[in-house]
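User: Can you predict the 3D structure for this chain?
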Amino acid sequence: MSEQEPVRDVAQLGHVELLSPRPADTVWFFTEILGLQAVREEGQSSYLRAYEDPYEYTLKVTESPQPGLGHGSWRAASEAALQRRAEALTRSGLGRGWNDGDYGHGPGYAFVTPDGHNMELFWDVRYFEAPAESRTALLNRPQRRPNRGVPVRRIDHLNLFTSHIDEDTEFYRRELGFKLREAIVGDDGGGLMASWLAVTALSHDIAIMPDAAGAQGRLHHVAYWYGAPQHLYDVADLMRDAGIVIEAGPGKHGISQAMYMYVYEPGGNRVELFGDAGYLDFDPQPR
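Assistant: Here is the predicted structure, written as structure tokens:
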């Protein structure tokens, strides 16, 4: 990879679709505890945003018999970049073709990972325009900070279980241009046991964990970002009183160096909250 011209066609994580058997309770958790705003309901789905997300939404909650990942959606760096990645994904055999898009964004190219996670790429997107009652005097912020719960600021990353860590890691690097930030390897120096990859300066935009159950296409967690570690302790108090299950933390990761907390929303999906960004990596050279 280091001898090839790097692929820079994927810009960022656009949104994540969570499946929930208790969608109303899942939406309650994200809006009343984490301060997201519900911007639309359509069919069996609700669309939500954090107050510093630039686009219409970053979370889609869809009713389903079981919790999990509906799909992850990535914004391309340009229209031409989207076309290039669509062609590459088609050649890889993992492309699933074009769709008409969803609320808030234009046509997307759907694909699956080697482990079976549903993903898409898009370019055209609708930027959020705050109504009068939620506008802010800060011109570099899309809307006013909400007065509900302890509001997160933006989506941060996606973490997936996989039974094909080496294949998935190579897929993200080769077909989508992700940089391998950190990894865990076996004592014998053999195959990967976990990996953290990024297309932005963040420590990771996606992470891949081993699935001990040997299943495929499962979600580990979606993460939202606070930017201030104290907010983890504030929201922990709120969650204890609300009966939300706190799995771990607040604490600090060695990998990523970020302050974190893991919780389960009422629909059964794990959610990570980042108290800060950990480290940022601006080195353009893949490693």
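The two ends are 8 Å apart (CA to CA). The chain is about 15% helix and 35% strand.
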